Amino acid sequence: MPALLPATEDHPHARAVLDAAVPPAGNPSHAYLFHGPAGAGKRDAARQFAAALLADGAQDAANAARRAIEGVHPDLTWVVPSGANVLVKADIDEAVVAASTHTPFESRRRVFVIEGAHTMNDAAANRMLKTLEEPPSFAHLILLTDRIGEVLPTIRSRCQAVRFEAPTVQKLADRLASRVPPDQAEACARLALGDGERALMLALGEGPALRAGAERLARACIAQDLAGRPWTALLERAGAHGEGALKAVEDRLAADLPFLPVKEQARAKREATDTGKRAQRRARIQALDQALGLVGLWLRDVAVTVDGAPELVHHSDRADAVAQDAAGFANAHGLRAGVDLVDETRFALREVNATEDLAVEALAFRLERAVATR
């Protein structure tokens, strides 16, 4: 029997929970937490579920569902994190908390979809809690997250969890096959580690250049040749991402400022300065994390090749280069130690606010010493 929501077809848990809740036969909960890797289909499922909720009882159910899918139904509110990629109080105050107390415009229900639930700060969470605890009967909240472990327990405990599975390598490769050569599609699918959005990023746009830069750094450490400072390109890319995020915040302020009362403009500028700094750093860290993740996977691939399991290599379209690097090792101990060093640096950048350029440069020299154990 096909799933009532096509986006849950490959997700048994989500299918079981949501199919049973689809009206008119189902009794939907007031709050759901859709969790699973990026690119697993959570957004599509949220749109389809919202469409089913809003179409229930409508005079023209098909039209109501279509408008919900297209994002133009007046009783559907879709919230994304602000320019700093953090859900702050202002993101949800009016759009969710206040709006959820107002009766629907045309449907029996109002549906609120909130992306990036794991980025919600304490102030936003405190505002959201009362709505989650005592929602109006017509309000339904759907929270989306790629990192359920980072969702605040007070939020997580008040939602019904809906799990979405990671897509298989074959499914990801099939999605990319019409856009890049088959060997590249398979490699990007493997390197994505179940993240559909990452697979697409690695295959298209600046993805190939990112892969090349990460490979250059990893292979330079293996070759004991850091004279060319191969980490520089990764830092420059991260800096460019940071500048882009900052500009997005500045552009948003420039667009909003003319419509604000004069007495509020100074406050808006101060808030935008803080938001811009957070957005800039977050974008830099995310870009470096992507790059270092690939460095770690290269070292891991060389290690499994040394161990006699080349079929496990993620850089499958670069298997010859991986094998060439592996030929210089009698064992994989130093390579595995290198993977641990990469993970330590990624953690330090994300959680300890380490200085990016110093952390990455130090990592390069530590990797060079670690993989000297052959």
TrEMBL record:
Gene Ontology biological process terms, A to Z: DNA-templated DNA replication
InterPro entries: DNA_Rep/Repair_Clamp_Loader, P-loop_NTPase
Pfam families noted in UniProt: DNA_pol3_delta2
Gene3D superfamilies given in the database record: P-loop containing nucleotide triphosphate hydrolases
The name this protein goes by in its record: Clamp loader of DNA polymerase
Source organism: Paraconexibacter sp. AEG42_29
Taxonomic lineage from the root: Bacteria, Bacillati, Actinomycetota, Thermoleophilia, Solirubrobacterales
